[in-house]
């Protein structure tokens, strides 16, 4: 039992009993990448704290990274808790930009250095970036710790 409350480091060797859920996401993502019409695009995994939801998302993220035409985007909202909403949102947008464009790209760098740009413009830039990605790839958003997140952050 982990008494600190932190999640142990993910390990593929220790991942068990959630293959069916992972396959559901992989099947939908690969089908969409092949151009198939997928009716239900939102999947919610819920369960008690410690039931393996975070490991499941990390496992799915790892599996999706190897699929051509699919861009996984794992976003953990836990590190943004307790911060002022605008600060958290700016850091979140920078994280998403780094994931979409790669940490060394000029595009990701632009987002992370735009402290004086209004949040609405940053969000607009990122929406454009995501639209560019969606023209070439299926974007799979893996959103973790939603229930623990600040509701004001979720609204933004």
Can you tell me about this structure?
There is one protein chain. With 156 residues, the chain is mostly helical. The chain has six helices and two strands; from the N terminus they run H-H-E-H-H-H-E-H. It has helices at 19-33, 53-64, 85-101, 106-112, 119-136, 151-155, and strands spanning 70-76, 138-144. Helix 1 (19-33) runs parallel beside helix 2 (53-64). The longest helix has 18 residues, at 119-136.
Question: What are the defining features of this structure?
Answer:
156 residues; two-stranded parallel sheet
Helix/strand order, N-terminal first: HHEHHHEH
β-strand amount: 5-15%
Main sheet: strand order: 1-2
Q: What's the mean pLDDT score?
A: 80
Number of E-type strands: 2
Query: Class by helix and strand content?
Result: mainly alpha
Residue windows where pLDDT falls under 50 for at least 5 positions:
none
User: What is the 3D form?
Assistant: globular
Summed up, the helix count is 6
**End-to-end distance, in Å?**
35 Å
């Amino acid at each position: 039992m982990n008494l600190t409350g932190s999640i142990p480091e993910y390990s593929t060797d220790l991942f068990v009993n959630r293959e069916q859920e992972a396959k559901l996401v992989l099947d939908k993502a690969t089908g969409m990448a092949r151009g198939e019409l997928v009716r239900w695009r939102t999947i919610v995994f819920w369960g008690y704290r410690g039931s393996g939801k975070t490991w499941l998302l990390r496992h799915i993220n790892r599996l999706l990274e190897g699929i051509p035409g699919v861009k996984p985007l794992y976003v953990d909202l836990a590190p943004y808790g307790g911060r002022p909403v605008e600060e958290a949102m700016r850091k979140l947008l920078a994280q998403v930009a780094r994931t979409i464009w790669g940490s060394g790209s000029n595009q990701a760098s632009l987002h992370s250095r735009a402290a004086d740009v209004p949040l609405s413009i940053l969000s607009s830039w990122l929406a454009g970036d995501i639209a560019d990605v969606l023209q070439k790839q299926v974007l799979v958003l893996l959103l973790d710790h939603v229930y623990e997140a600040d509701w004001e952050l979720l609204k933004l």
